[in-house]
Specification:
Elements: H1 2-11, H2 20-25, H3 38-47, H4 49-70, H5 82-102, E1 105-112, H6 118-121, E2 134-137, H7 143-149, E3 156-160, H8 169-175, E4 179-181, H9 186-205, E5 212-215, E6 240-248, H10 261-270, E7 274-280, H11 288-293, H12 301-316, H13 326-337, H14 342-368, H15 373-379
Parallel strand pairs: 1-7, 2-5, 2-6, 3-4, 3-5
Antiparallel strand pairs: 6-7
Helix pairs in contact: 4-5, 5-7
């Protein structure tokens, strides 16, 4: 256990030495190790992690077997209904809540945020009192999925393809009609838009179809900024329930930024307690006022809708916007955890060479500018 804690410190040592400029540039993805406490991690590694890890393994195994038992004879092409749906929800709520507990989340505080949306929706806007077919949320951690499954919403998800193979979560995901997306495939990303639209229609008409939860930023971050919203959740032009999740912890940041996932999960089990607040905003929907007054935010109705909701997040929760993407997150991971790889060296060498060429060219132009201005212009 002590070896594990020391291994974590050794693996993440570059995170504590990054410059202020680097941390500012990659604010959404740079791990905060300033709160780490060896004594707390030693205590957690000895007295908390072993039985929490054991509970997770036993619980996941039991849950997977139970779900498979409930789904015997069920056609996976249609949603679960009736008694099977009730059993699946009860078992799913219990198991996911225990999973949160094993990671230190003792209590989930759910808040209804009351705010006036007339600035974006138009004067006199009254949020519809319906079950929204789509839930949009920021994405902070892999624990977000557990927290949603432990709630009354019990939605489906659009998750990366790898989640389909996760023990327990993957099994439940299939049963509640989750979409598992291969992010590297452009064809699959385009196809998912029509599937989201179809799902929104089904969830609007039939109660057996659960709402679809979309993590609109497309990747996890530390919830200190609002990343660019992807258009998928807004493409159907249906009512949306916006949710903002915020984790706080005294010794270890639960945000899954760029730390290796196995290391992150085990450190979560070493932490005594984590606080989670789930903020639910009023339901929003596209209105004529929005489409007439916010045309500068997008070229199509779905982009306008997405950027208006992004503005709401930014203003209501007082968060700056960031234009960083998943590609920038991979860059942070490569710099912090694989600094010696050929790919990183080639990338840094390429950037350095490109800057050097630009500097030399600029100096050459400046030196000869007094001799032949027209030739220098062509050269530049």
């Amino acid at each position: 256990c002590i070896w594990f804690v020391e291994y974590c410190y050794k693996t993440t040592r570059r995170c504590s030495t990054v410059s202020r400029e680097f941390r500012s540039k990659y604010k959404p993805f740079t791990p905060d190790v300033s709160k780490w406490n060896r004594a707390i991690f030693y205590f957690g590694a000895i007295f908390l992690m072993p039985w929490r890890l054991l509970g997770w393994i036993v619980g996941t195994t039991t849950y997977t077997l139970t779900v498979n038992l409930i789904l015997i004879g069920h056609d996976m092409r249609i949603p679960v209904s009736g008694c099977k749906k009730c059993l699946l929800k009860i078992v799913g709520n219990f198991w996911t809540r225990m999973g949160c507990w094993y990671c230190g989340i003792w209590w989930i505080n759910r808040k209804q945020v009351k705010t006036d949306l007339s600035k974006w929706m138009g004067n006199g806007y009254v949020p519809p009192r319906i079950r929204a077919p789509i839930i949009c949320s920021n994405h902070t951690s892999y624990l977000d999925i557990l927290c949603f499954m432990a709630s009354s919403h019990f939605p489906s998800f659009i998750a990366k393809k790898a989640v389909e193979k996760y023990p327990g979560i993957g099994t439940l995901g299939k049963s509640i009609k989750c979409y598992f997306l291969e992010r590297a495939s452009k064809e699959e990303r385009n196809k998912i838009l029509d599937e989201i639209k179809e799902r929104a229609e089904l969830a609007s008409k039939y109660k057996d179809w659960p709402p679809l939860c979309v993590f609109v930023e497309g990747t996890t971050s530390n919830a200190q900024t609002v990343l660019e919203f992807k258009r998928g959740a807004f493409y159907p032009q249906k009512p949306i329930l916006p949710i903002f999740m915020k984790y706080t912890a005294p010794f270890f940041d639960p945000a899954y930024d760029v730390l290796p996932i196995k290391l992150h999960m085990l450190l979560m089990m070493c932490q005594p307690i984590v606080f989670l607040t789930v903020n639910e905003l009023p339901i929003v929907e596209p209105t004529p006022y929005m489409m007439e007054n916010y045309t500068h935010l997008g070229e199509s109705p779905d982009l306008i809708y997405a950027n208006v909701v992004r503005d709401i997040y930014s203003e209501v929760f007082n968060l700056p916007k960031s234009e960083l993407t998943f590609a920038d997150k991979k860059e942070v991971y490569r710099k912090l955890f694989k600094p010696g790889t050929v790919e990183t060296q080639q990338r840094e060498g390429y950037d350095s060479d490109r800057k050097q060429i630009y500097v030399e060219l600029q100096e050459s132009i400046n030196m000869s500018s007094s001799q032949n201005p027209q030739k220098d212009k062509e050269k530049a």
